[in-house]
Specification:
three-stranded antiparallel sheet, alpha+beta, two-stranded antiparallel ribbon, 108 residues
Length: 108
């Protein structure tokens, strides 16, 4: 399977997937040098939807109560890993500019 490159939001240059950093980490565009990162909301959506689908699947399979809870907790880790792998392989995350190093959610 050929992996299609992502597009830099600043200069619109194609970026190979092997140059990406893990979600949350910043990296530089190979063409313009802009500091970029994978959009944080992308993985929240992928992992949240996969966990909800897993819970519905377990409930439809007849699990209720404590067995449902235990299987969901144990299998949830595997589901999250599979969702991350499949998302990276088939649904490429969008890129966004990385905020400056000293920037926080709550300014002092």
């Amino acid at each position: 399977m050929k992996k299609t490159p992502l597009e830099c939001p600043i200069c619109k240059a194609k970026m190979p997937l092997d140059k990406l950093a893990p979600p949350g980490m910043c990296f530089e565009c190979t063409t313009c040098g802009a500091s970029l990162r994978i959009d944080q909301g992308h993985m929240y959506v992928v992992k949240g939807c996969s966990l909800m689908a897993f819970a519905v699947l377990l409930w439809a399979a007849g699990l209720r109560g404590i067995p449902l809870f235990l299987v969901f907790i144990g299998g949830g880790v595997l589901v999250l890993q599979a969702a991350h792998f499949l998302s990276a392989a088939f649904w490429h995350p969008p890129l966004e500019p990385c905020p400056p190093q000293g920037m926080t959610l709550f300014p002092r």
